[in-house]
Specification:
alpha/beta; TIM Barrel; twelve-stranded mixed beta sheet; two-stranded antiparallel ribbon; 16 strands; disordered N terminus
Length: 407
């Protein structure tokens, strides 16, 4: 089905650079490690990060998205964005928007091209429930969106459609039309081992329910393609006031590579849609398997040492894996929601207790306790991380700090 592939010859994905391992919100669907590797570790220092970005640009990556956790919690964010904007044709940020009203002008001066803001509801009360924050936070995020628009930023609002906020789809369409010249991206809920299968089953909304709603409000449809053709093509709907809506639907199909051969969760929902640099210095191709992560460092005396050789070797290894990319579309054995039922009993993730403390007990209650217990017992895992030991858990329990939620 040729419409699902663009004419681009570039076959490298966008880069997702995790600048910060924690977040000041607790969105109900978000895995506790954010974009990272099932651990919360020290964030990369500025010098190491800039060296890695330089080598990635030399490897012909073109699109960078700074993410987290929450990237705006990083103190040197503006400097990092300025450095990146000189290396890559397109530098974006994916943020919850909590402080954009204060920093958007500086991001503009630093060379940021596009701002993506997570907004899972148009109504304050629904937003507060989805993010586990407050209506005050919603007001702050709205102010940030409006500031970005006034500065002339291309703005994309990202909404993860779940059962609790399904009633917000139409209000979100009206909201972006009122803003004008804004993109709304509707994303399906992705299955992770945490929050887990039952959470996914209870909250997943098929895009078969969403697309007809968008179609009834649209004036036309086209296709949008991810950078380098890596990931899922998305139907793009035109709305009033120069607004458009992208719909990410895993059923459409996505890209995989030879490294996916034999994977117990193949075909997965996202496939290889983006390459993430984690806060602890790994290049992460897959959301599910840490054994596929490539370190850009070597360990010396328990410390991560980033050298020219280790960084270039790691980047070359990852780039070579993309040479075998292929697209599997609907009807060719691609992912379907029923696939998750087959994968629910497979254990690939081994988070540390420090990560598990990311959860707020009042929301996850028994699920939180089960997750901690899971870390205490030996399980069969594809992870390259060692199994949790009781000594390690005790050490982390002393050191772990549960961040406060912004108001």
């Amino acid at each position: 089905m040729d419409v699902l592939r663009s004419n681009s010859s570039l076959e490298l994905p966008h880069l997702r650079i995790s600048l910060y391992g924690d977040c000041n919100m607790r969105c109900i669907y978000c895995p506790p490690w954010g974009e990272n590797s099932y651990t919360i570790d020290d964030n990369l220092d500025t010098v190491s990060l800039e060296r890695i970005l330089t080598y990635l640009s030399e490897a012909s990556f073109r699109v960078v998205k700074f993410t987290g956790g929450e990237p705006t919690l990083r103190k040197d964010l503006i400097d990092v964005v300025h450095f990146s904007s000189k290396l890559f044709p397109e530098t974006r940020i994916i943020t919850n928007g909590w402080n954009l009203s204060k920093i958007a002008s500086n991001l503009k001066l630093a060379g940021l091209k596009i701002i993506e803001i997570s907004l899972d509801a148009a109504e304050p009360a629904s937003y507060a429930r989805m993010t586990q924050t407050s209506t005050t936070m919603y007001t702050a995020v709205r102010a940030g969106i409006e500031e970005c628009i006034s500065l002339g930023f291309p703005v994309q609002l990202n909404m993860v459609v779940t059962r609790p906020n399904f009633d917000q789809v139409v209000p979100m369409l009206r909201l972006v039309e009122s803003f004008g010249n804004v993109t709304l991206k509707l994303l399906e809920l992705v299955y992770y081992e945490y929050p887990g299968y039952q959470f996914w089953k209870d909250n997943f909304v098929s895009m078969d329910e969403v697309i007809p709603i968008v179609q009834r409000n649209s004036k036309g449809i086209d296709w949008a393609y991810p950078p380098g053709n890596v990931g899922s093509p998305m139907p793009s709907f035109a709305l009033d006031n120069n607004t458009k809506v992208l719909v990410k639907d895993g059923v459409v199909g996505t890209t995989y590579a030879n490294i996916c051969d034999g994977c117990p969760v193949f075909p997965c929902q996202d496939g290889l849609y983006g390459l993430t640099l984690t806060t602890d210095g790994y290049l992460k191709m897959c959301k599910h398997r840490t054994d596929l992560h490539v370190p850009l460092f070597e360990l010396q005396g328990g410390r991560r040492i980033f050298t020219e050789q280790t960084m270039q070797r790691g980047i070359q290894e990852v780039v070579s894996r993309y040479e075998s990319l292929y697209f599997r579309e609907k009807g060719e054995g691609s992912w379907t929601p029923e696939t998750v039922e087959l994968h629910k009993a497979i254990t690939l993730v081994q988070p540390t207790l420090k990560v598990l403390k990311w959860y707020r007990k009042k929301e996850y209650s028994n699920g939180y306790e089960e997750a901690v217990n899971k870390c205490l017992v030996q399980t069969q895992s594809a992870s390259s991380y060692p199994e949790c030991s009781s000594e390690k858990i005790r050490d982390e329990e002393v050191a772990a700090v549960t961040p406060s939620v912004g108001n």
